Structures are given as C-alpha cells and as structure tokens.
Amino acid sequence: MHADNWYILGAGSIGCLWAASLCHKGESPRLILRESSYQQFGQKRIPLKLSTPGQTSLFDVDIVSPETIDNPINRLIVCTKAQDSLAALNSVKPHLTDNCQILLLQNGMGSQQIIRDALPTQTVWAGSSTDGAYLSSPFEVHHAGQGQTWIGSLRNGQGSEQGFNDLSDHFRLKVIQCNTIEQKLWEKLAINSCINGLTALFNCRNGELLDNGEKQAWLDELIAETCSVLAALEIRATSLKEKVHGVCQTTASNISSTCQDARKGRVTELSFINGFLIKQANILGVSVSSHNRLMDQLSAAGIR
Ligand code: KPL
Q1: Which of 39, 105, 191, 289 is most buried (CB neighbours < 10 A)?
Q2: Residue nearest to atom 10 of ligand 1 (CA)
Q3: Ligand 1 pocket member 256 (CB < 6 A)
C-alpha cells in the first residue's frame, strides 16, 4: 500500500476538513471533484485554508476529477452527501484496487449499506462524527467545533487489519475505532431525526426547538417514537430525551445542516435520516405518526 495514496471524494466542509487534517499529518491527499467543478479551476493544485478558533493554516492540495485520476486508489474517504454518494463512488470505481479501504462519512443511514453491498471485495468502513465544520468559500474550511469520529468496518470480521489504524495517532481529528459502528450511526441518526427536520420546517436555530410550546411538544413526540423504533430494533439508546434536549442546548445558536440545505434550496439528507427510520418502523409495525406528519409537512413546504 502506498503510504501517501489518500483520495477524498467531495470538497464540501467535511471533505476539506479531512483533506487539510491529512496534510497537517504530513500526508498528500488528493481531492476528487466532479468533472464540472474541476473544469472551473485553471490550476490543478489549490491552496486549502483551515481555520480553527485562533489559528489559520494553509496547505497545497492536488485536485483531480474521475477522468484525470492517474493511479490506483487504495484509500478513499467519501465525503459527499448521502444522496450523492453511490453515484460519486461509481464515477471512481474503475480506479479502486480490490483491497481498497473505503471510509464513508455520510449522515444518516442507508447509503452506507447500499455502497457496502455494491463493493463486495473492498473493505468498507463507516464513520459517525460530531465535528462541526463549515466552508466560508470554496476550499476555506472552518473547524468550528472539535468533536470525535467513530469509525468501524461495515462487514463483520473486516477492518481489524491495517485499515485506518494510522488515523489514531498524530492526527488533529479525534478518530476512535469501534466494533459497533451501526450502534453509533443509529445513536446519531436518532438525535438528528428529532432535531434536523423540525428546524428546517420552522426555519429556526436548534435552541429554538425548546420553546415550551408547539415545537417542543412535537420534538418530544418525535423522541418518544424514535425510542420505540430503537427498542423494537433492540438498539441500546438510554436517555434519548436528555440527549436531544442537551444537543439543542449546547448547539442552541447552530443552524442545523438540514435547515442550511433547505435555506439554500438543496436536497436535504432527510430521506437517509427520518426516511430510514420510517422505513424500519414500517417493517417492524411501529407507529411513527409524528415522523410521518413532519415529512409530509416538509414536502408540502417544498423541502425534500
Ligand atoms: O448534527 C447536527 C446537524 O446539524 O446535522 C446537529 C447535532 C443537529 C447540530 O446542528
């Protein structure tokens, strides 16, 4: 395995955060852009700016498109939105080595499992992250909230070998390997399924959901239904209500990722968050009428 053969698919906030963090570690990741975005840049090496409260660093990073990749990919981090990840991966599939290690960093669930099944020979990992990052302009990423990223293989028995072990040391992001990544993905999905859609519908900040009124009542119904789905799936989820209210308090001034997408008129990741939860509930025969009402009202408001 080439030590420096890192590719990152997607140059949004998470793609840029990971690319800059790998550069900081001394690696030379290449950022894969879609053909149309790639064509907009005259130069194929771009300055990537990483800002944290109190410090700014600049790195030079190679950009490529699926058409211009000229060596086999053996380590790939997929940082596109959930709904774009399969098509993005298919665009680079001819370049993946058979034992390529792939790390998927999408919100929600469903997209990771589709990709795992589409790539039977490669080792597919998923990550669940609490890092907060945003782009102020292309290739200018702000690491606003230091969190942690749990990573684990999506295929039983795989991933304990080399994989992404080297992400655990001398890396500015906190990466923790775990054998229960599906549990971690569910824990995050559970919280996002209660907060994100509601903030998009009411076009409000996370903290405004705790209004002791209509929003909070709906929030608490969503939490109760989510708990029932998790219980039916036998997924451990203690004190979801305290956790969700806690996230609303600690991120009170945040505009959730879904609300940001809705404001920009972009397709949100809700079909991989609430949509995935509703699908599981239907299979299990658990009633999720508040989640259904939320999705119906979002779609009536033109938020997909
Ligand atoms: O993960 C988030 C998101 O915006 O997607 C929360 C936790 C709601 C923070 O804004």
Answers
A1: 105
A2: 256
A3: yes
Express the helix, strand and coil content of the chain in percent, nearest 5 each.
45, 20, 35
d(CA 120, CA 112): 13
CA–CA distance, 12 with 247 (Å, rounded to integer): 23
For residues 103 and 164, the answer to whether their CB atoms sit within 8 Å is yes
Domain boundaries, the chain: 3-178, 184-300
Tell whether domain 184-300 is in CATH 1.10.1040.10: yes
| Residue partners of 248: CB distance under 8 A and separation at least 6 | 195, 206, 207, 209, 210, 219
CATH top-level class of 3-178: alpha beta
Strands 30-32 and 6-9: parallel
184 assigned to active site: no
Active-site annotation holder among 25, 188, 243, 279: 188
22-42 confidence digits (pLDDT tens): 999 999 999 999 988 898 887
pTM for this prediction:
0.91
- pLDDT tens for 119-152 read 988 899 999 998 888 899 999 999 988 899 999 9
